[in-house]
Amino acid sequence: MLIPSLLQGKIEVREYQVNVFREALRQNTLIVLPTGLGKTVIAAMVAARVLEEGGRVLFMAPTRPLVQQHYRSLSQLLGLSERECSYFTGEVDTGDRRERWVLSRLIVSTPQVVANDIRSGDADISRFSLLVFDEAHRAVGNYAYVSIASSFLEARRRLVLAMTASPGGDREKVEEVKRNLGIERVIIKGESDPDVAPYVKEIEVETITVALPSRARQILYDMRSIYNDLISKYRDNPELSKTAINRKALAVKIQELVEKARSGNRALFKVIPYLTATIRLDYAIEYMESQGPEIAYEYLQSLEGSEDPSVQRTVKILHSLPGYTDLLLNLGRVCREGVENPKMEVALRLCEQKIAENPASRIIVFTHFRKTSETLTRYLNEHSAAIRAVRFVGQSSRGSDEGMSQREQEEIIQRFRDGDFNVLVATSVAEEGLDIPSTDMVIFYEPVPSEIRSIQRRGRTGRTRTGQVKILLYEGSRDRGYYFSSLRKERRMQRNMEGSVGVKRDPKLDDFS
């Protein structure tokens, strides 16, 4: 089968891409392919064939920057005019979308916009012949992909193409994705496959363990002591004697106790605020363990200033505990005096070393929290003449921290590509799919317990040459637990994929159906 004429002379396809393309035309397909190995090229080939046959294509991606990126690449590859190819985000006027739903041959959109327009009647999903779901592992629960696929399948349209680099370590979740998207075949191509291996660049992964400064360690010790004191206030309650003391278990228990309290056991209403306070104090401990004093203090201060009645009850409970008020004062003092943050120092050293080796290097530092990204960006720029760091966050605002507009995000990514900035300090918005091919090193400011997010973070490097990944861990913290949790989940994901019923090994194609 030849490459679609719309793409001939525009792309240089690889053998495994052609193999997958042929299979994806036959039935609804989920492609599992490592980051940076050309899932979008495969999608472009399938889309081109559908367009050549007179069909229409709807291509969806979960974030606005990713929608913009796919729109640019697909419209150029397929040679479509602005009239023929449109992109939709929440910033595109409803009236403009209504017209483009009728006229455009190819639409690239966030799923939220598509779902809303289907509900309002502005979008007729039955007019499309192909739906493409990028980052398809999201198609679970109430995510918009699920309702969109349901509408498409009810209309008996013919083709679904779903793509992900990381389907997840939970077999049930993979099965849920398949059901929700109407997937008939899953094609898995791994880095060790003979037709893929020549295109895979090595990624060197190193964990770096750092110690909290002595004053921060003492505060962390005090926080844990207060946490244990808080637990003792309700641990002997018969309703809680067998409940695990962790955030997930306590959140479930709170819902259970609320129902029992409403059904007559009103004494439980006095216990619930203590469970809520435990969860919130545990967040503060985690921030202290993985981010340092600044983030922990900011979080506790946000509790102090909240007008939410539930939060006010938490604050009252915390201040009733011996040592908590002094803890808050000590933590504030440490932050004002500018206690050193070893993770920031290590990140600075790693960035400077890489830039010294190669002044044209590009580096991404991933942080989980926006406040950390702000503080770290400022720290890197203030302490190094060689580093030109820029912050990259999502579009939604968090209190006084305003999000970035779509235009600001696009400008930052382009300037990072061009070398105006050489370090991108990013939150999770940069984990999925953004085309930054020349990144030489990725730094995890903290590990994440999700195998999907770990794979996506690593996938930002090693695309065109050997890449490096550095993972920073605070000694004696839950950082290490999160790191090993993600490793276990990745291994389980591989076992699930390789050991699934229906796997067939073929020199050119791995099929898990």
UniProtKB/TrEMBL annotation:
Domain Helicase ATP-binding: 20-185
PROSITE patterns reported for this sequence: DEAH_ATP_HELICASE, HELICASE_ATP_BIND_1, HELICASE_CTER
Keyword Nucleotide-binding: yes
Domain Helicase C-terminal residue range list: 343-513
Molecular functions per Gene Ontology: ATP binding; catalytic activity, acting on DNA; helicase activity; hydrolase activity; nucleic acid binding
Source superkingdom: Archaea
Keywords noted in UniProt: ATP-binding, Helicase, Hydrolase, Nucleotide-binding
Name by which UniProt lists this protein: DEAD/DEAH box helicase
